[in-house]
Amino acid sequence: MLPQNADEVAAVVAWCYEHDVPVVPRGGGSGFAGGCVPVEGGVVVALDRMTRVRSFDPLLWRIHVEAGLRTSDVQRLARENGLLFPPDPGAAEQSQIGGNIATNAGGPHAFKYGVTGHWVTGLEAVVPPGELIAVGGPIRKDVAGYDLGGLLIGSEGTLGIITAAWLRLVPAPEAAAPVVGLYADVAAGCAAIEAVLGSGIQAAALEFLDRGALDAARAAYPFELPAEASFMVLAEADGSAAETAATAADLSDALGSGALEVQALGSKREIEALWRWRDGVSIAVETVCGGKVSEDIAVPLDRLAEAIETTLALGARHGLPACSWGHAGDGNLHATFMVDPHDPGQLSRAHAAGIELYEAAARMHGTISGEHGLGWVKRGHLDVQWNAATRRLHREIKETLDPKNLMNPGKKT
Ligand SMILES: Cc1cc2nc3c(=O)[nH]c(=O)nc-3n(C[C@H](O)[C@H](O)[C@H](O)COP(=O)(O)OP(=O)(O)OC[C@H]3O[C@@H](n4cnc5c(N)ncnc54)[C@H](O)[C@@H]3O)c2cc1C
User: Fold this and answer.
1) Within 10 Å of residue 383's Cβ, how many Cβ atoms?
2) Pairing mode, if any, of strands 120-127 and 261-264?
3) Cα 118 to Cα 110, 200, 405, distances in angstroms
4) Whole-structure pTM value
5) For ligand 1, is residue 83 a contact (CB within 6 Å)?
6) Which residue from 12, 24, 26 has its CB within 8 A of the most atoms of ligand 1, so it is best to mutate?
């Protein structure tokens, strides 16, 4: 179904609820957890036609959009008016704002600016049995009721269909300057990451690539890389021109100790080339063996090196090349096992390695999903990080809001 407005979404959900038909919301289809796949059949409600900007008040730093508007369009509208919509998940040209909210998507700049939910001040949604609700709005504070918006944010389409959102914007930083540190090993790289935080530097982004990820993307790196570089830290300073220059200098110092080399980039062309390259890392890793099973665990920052090494050890034990990269400042890593997608043996070993990785993340007081959600691919694994009482509460919330279990069934369980 391709509804044109919230009333049509409500009518579809009402019909489905009356006739016991599952409903699966679909945004841009860029999610990594299989969340928008109708595994139990039913009606897929795609928000593609709901792309209206309902209102935009640049002078008040806010925008009200329908859920089907692409992430990159929200970012562009903000930028053209001197503002910034900071969430920057990597598939912004494809993903929709509703999908970003439904997954509470992160991205490189979530380190400074927070994940998508931080930027939502109001939501309109259709919930079972087909009713339109609205929470929050063009307001920056609201503690009147329970945080129902917070429940919908990150709910992966299992509680309702988000039809529109009020978003908060900020004045765009005047400048940005990435600084890249290159290291001989994981320990030196992770020590540099902790040095950035320990020095009190607020980087806008703080990313990493380990050896396997760096090797996969090495040939496309737009600048020179020392041959012995086995770990990269990519940090970015932003703010006014003066603040950016000062923060970039501080970053160079903090990243410098133990580094093989530090590269400070300044021109617009260099910055764009660097981030374009970073956006392509996931695909570069995929091309190594033709496929990959990529996780998105998050751990406390002081366990990042352990999580990276654990990924490598699990890969070795299961006979699979492994690597990781991701959002170092958030302790969020795309721990990856590279596979030939046509080899069922490799796929099942990667699956087994993934389950052991979830257990390791939980032991480190981390989470099995820092940004992609459970969707279909990680279903059934909440028990590694939550006790029975917590899981029961999670289930009871679902049963209260969706008593017939028709909203995206089988996901986020
Ligand atoms: C190359 C690449 C890089 C990526 N980088 C990042 C990254 O840095 N950070 C990150 O967090 N993610 C990243 N992702 C994952 C993905 O882009 C995000 O999860 C994104 O938020 C999904 O949005 P979507 O519109 O494509 O949603 P979909 O994939 O269509 O759906 C995702 C989930 O949300 C639900 N949903 C979608 N729209 C709605 C709605 N309107 N109401 C209710 N539920 C809805 C679906 O049912 C599904 O469960 C990346 C993906 C790719 C391909």
Assistant:
1) 12
2) unpaired
3) 10, 22, 28
4) 0.96
5) no
6) 26
What are the tens digits of pLDDT across the range 399-411?
Answer: 999 999 999 999 9
Which run of H or E residues covers position 27? none
Among 36, 97, 332, 369, which is best to mutate for testing ligand 1, by the most ligand atoms less than 8 A from CB? 36
Q: Cis peptide before 129, with omega less than 30 degrees from 0?
A: yes
Q: Are 124 and 131 spatial neighbours (Cβ–Cβ below 8 Å)?
A: no
Reported as a single tens digit per residue, the pLDDT across 64-77 is 999 999 999 999 99
For the cut 90, the answer to whether the pLDDT of residue 97 exceeds it is: yes
Residue 91 Cβ inside 6 Å of ligand 1? The answer reads: yes
Nearest to 84 by CA among 74, 92, 93, 94: 74
Pull the structure tokens for residue 104. Answer: 């509470």
Residue 378 pLDDT exceeds 90: yes
* CA 407 to ligand 1 centroid distance, Å: 17
Mean predicted lDDT score pLDDT of the chain: 97
Q: Is 29 in the pocket of ligand 1 (CB under 6 A)?
A: yes
Angstrom CA distances, 271 to 177, 275, 278, 378, stand at: 7, 6, 11, 35
3-class state of residue 24 by DSSP = strand
Q: Does the C-beta of 154 come closer than 6 Å to ligand 1?
A: no
**pLDDT tens-digit series, residues 147-182:** 999 999 999 999 999 999 999 999 999 999 999 999
